[in-house]
Structure formats: structure tokens, C-alpha cells
Design brief:
The chain is mainly alpha-helical. The protein has eight helices and no strands.
Length: 226
Amino acid sequence: MPHWLQLMYDSLPTLLWAGIRFTIPLTLLSFALGLALGLGTAVARLFGARPLVLVARFYVWVIRGTPLLVQLFVIFYGLPSLGILLDAFPAALIGFTLNIGAYTSEIIRAAISSVPKGQWEAAYSTGMTWRQAMTRTILPQAGRVAVPSLANTFISLVKDTSLAAAITVPELFQSAQRIVATTYEPLILYIEAALIYLAISSVLSSLQARLEVRFGRYGGMLEANP
């Protein structure tokens, strides 16, 4: 077996374990929390009182206007100067959650805004409250519109978790860096890490395509039976 292939074979379990133990949990938790934060931010910007709208806008402006890597450094390396000490994984989780929350809030806000006002009027005419109209009528329709963009954000997040290596989270990419430090084979190990990310992204892209087809059929049923 060629040396490069043997090296990839030997390092594969370590990289996969790092992905299972850190990369996947970090991705899932960050996206779930970020999605909840994004929904709250979007609702605040669309329907909140003016002070709440200003806070939500400021949050989105700051997060979208600064690099994710800088945000992670501020949280992990900067906050200790204020007496706030965080372990690497919680710091990464907070950073990714805040980042995802800002971007998904714009996606959700646009999706909610795309729902015709007549849907609100129809919901109110049946006696629904604002909360009921939002949860039963508006969000299901907005969700169908937002799915492709949210799925793309999730796939991007999988790759962005490699930035957590910069704040010492032992995820997939940092595991590759550690192996490189002992084998002195950066090209082989980084290509292997890239292939793993590519495989994960390809699987997620396939799932995204199926999900979009399913939601497309659901949307067609709604249009055929208004």
C-alpha cells in the first residue's frame, strides 16, 4: 500500500471520531439554537415594539458585518479580560449560535413577509388570535419558502465549524492539524479532512434536494386546495 494511502487509512478513525464527537454535535446544537434565536429576532423585527426592533437590528448588523472568526476570538480570548471564562466548546457554541441566529433571522423575516396579507385576514376571520394565526397559518407557509435557504445555511455551518479549531476545539480539522504535527504530511491530511467535509456536505445536499421536493408537493397541494 502506498505511503499516502496508508497514512489516510490510519488517520481516518481519528478524524471520524473527532467529527462524531465534536463537529456533528456542534453543528446540530448551533443550528437548533441559532434557528430559535433567528425566529425570535425575525418576529421582533416584524412585530415588536420600536426599542425591541432597534435591538434586533443592531444585533443582526453587528453579526453580519463582522467575520465569524473574529467573533469566536472575541468570545474565547476577549471575554476573559472581563472575567468571563468559557471552555472552548461552549465558546464555539455561543459564537456559532449568534452567527446563525443573525443570518437565519433574515431568511425567516423574508419568508414571513412573503406570505400574503390575505392569509392573516383569513386566519383572523376564523377567530384565531395573533399567536394562533402565526403558528397555524403563517409559519407553515413561511417555512416552505425558507427551507432551501435554511438548508444551505446548515450545510455552510458544517464547513464553518472548522473555524472552531482556532479556539482549540478538537473537532475534525484540528484533529487533522494534530496529526500533521506528528507526521509532517500536511497535504495528505488536509486533503483527507476536505474529503470528509465534502462527503458530509454531499449527503446533506442530497437530503436537501429531497426535502425541497417534498415541500414543493405540499405547497402544490395547498395551492390546489386553498
